[in-house]
Hints:
Elements: E1 20-27, H1 31-35, E2 41-48, E3 54-57, H2 64-70
Amino acid sequence: xxxxxxxxxxxxxxxxxxxxxxxxxxxxxxxxxxxxxxxxxxxxxxxxxxxxxxxxxxxxxxxxxxxxxxxxxxx
Length: 75
């Protein structure tokens, strides 16, 4: 399985850039969850390559394309 960046209709809110990186991240809520190996919350981070502005979405990486298809074109 390839690790491909989904093609999104993305425009950065800060600088208007069109190039981006998409990564899945897991956020641990407390040290207790780390100690007991409790799963954290998964988010998808979309980062502008130009200014590094990052937006977090509570969606899996595989579903982010469908979400962006519903957003109006920004910029």
